[in-house]
Amino acid sequence: MLRTPTGGAGHGTATGGDTLMSIGTVLAQLRDEFPEVTISKIRFLETEGLVEPRRTPSGYRKFTAGDVERLALVLRMQRDHYLPLKVIREQLDALERGEPLQLPAQGPQRELFDGTWDPAEGERPTAARIGRAELLAAAEFGEEDLAEWESYGLLTPDEDGGYDSEAITVARLVADLGRFGLEPRHLRAMKASAERDAGLVEQVVAPLRRHRNPQTRAHAEATTKELAALSVRLHAALVQTALGVRLH
Fold this sequence. Notes:
This protein is mostly helical. The chain has three domains: about 25-95, Multidrug-efflux Transporter Regulator, Chain: A, Domain 2 (Orthogonal Bundle); about 125-180, Multidrug-efflux Transporter Regulator, Chain: A, Domain 2 (Orthogonal Bundle), CATH 1.10.1660; about 190-248, no CATH class. It is about 55% helix and about 5% strand. It is built from nine helices and four strands, in the order H-H-E-E-H-H-E-H-H-E-H-H-H. Helix 5 (about 130-140) crosses helix 7 (about 165-180). The radius of gyration is 22 Å and the shape is globular. Mean pLDDT is about 80; it is low at about 1-10, about 10-15 and about 105-125.
């Protein structure tokens, strides 16, 4: 039975009677219910502030039984209700204040209260798309610029001539870099690196998408987003580290 986290000492604090567990032991306990969970997943949830294990003087993580129950609750809210981490964090904060969980009812093809779609059954709605004119207006650049960026593969329209809504962000960033003298040809390496990162993410989530359990297949999208966020953070850290080495 899952115990509700309580306020006061904090969810990462152990009492005198608690048995502390390694991350490997925690993984073994969770995998009975969550076969797709990994050590990287647990570490990711820690970096997002959803669990706070203790640390030994040498830096090793040590988890309490309460930490394991908290992780299980987080994983259930992701798997069963498809909640984003921000909403899950709010739910945990409410629990610590002694308030009940406010979870959406389960059901096929429902739109959740946070605006996301439950893909448990049926097809997920098509992602937001924008037309060429909308992209030009939103990103505030010209047709000639767009054509050049497309020629280098930085932006790619679909067969209907539309773009993913994320194209606006890409276009604005390309334009911002251009003000520093970085031309589209200079950015091809970044595009190639992004494609490689996407390939690595796909390798991880592909088994989840092929899983016989529909909830596990649906969980693949949340896993994709988390891996993408980790990849972006790692890339930023590596760039900062490389610049620090070269400039000092």
